[in-house]
Amino acid sequence: MAIQTAKDVLKFAKDNKIEAADLKFLDLLGLWQHFTVPPSELTEEVFEEGLG
After folding, report:
1. Is the pLDDT of residue 18 over 70?
2. How many helices (H) and strands (E) would you count in the chain?
3. What angle do CA 16, 3, 40 make, to 5 degrees?
4. Cβ proximity of 10 and 47 under 8 Å
5. Structural fold of domain 6-49
6. What is the average per-residue pLDDT within 8-23?
C-alpha cells in the first residue's frame, strides 16, 4: 500500500493501532528536532495547516 495522502496516513495509523507518531523537522539552524503526538492529534487539518 502506497501512502501518498493525509487520508492514507490516518487510515494506516488506525488500521495498525498506532499509539504515537514521532514528527521530525529541521529548525531554522538546520538541526533535527522532533516531538511525539498521539494519533488523536492527527487530522487532515494538521497536514494542511501544520501544528504550532
Report:
1. yes
2. 2, 2
3. 45
4. no
5. Ubiquitin-like (UB roll) (3.10.20)
6. 95
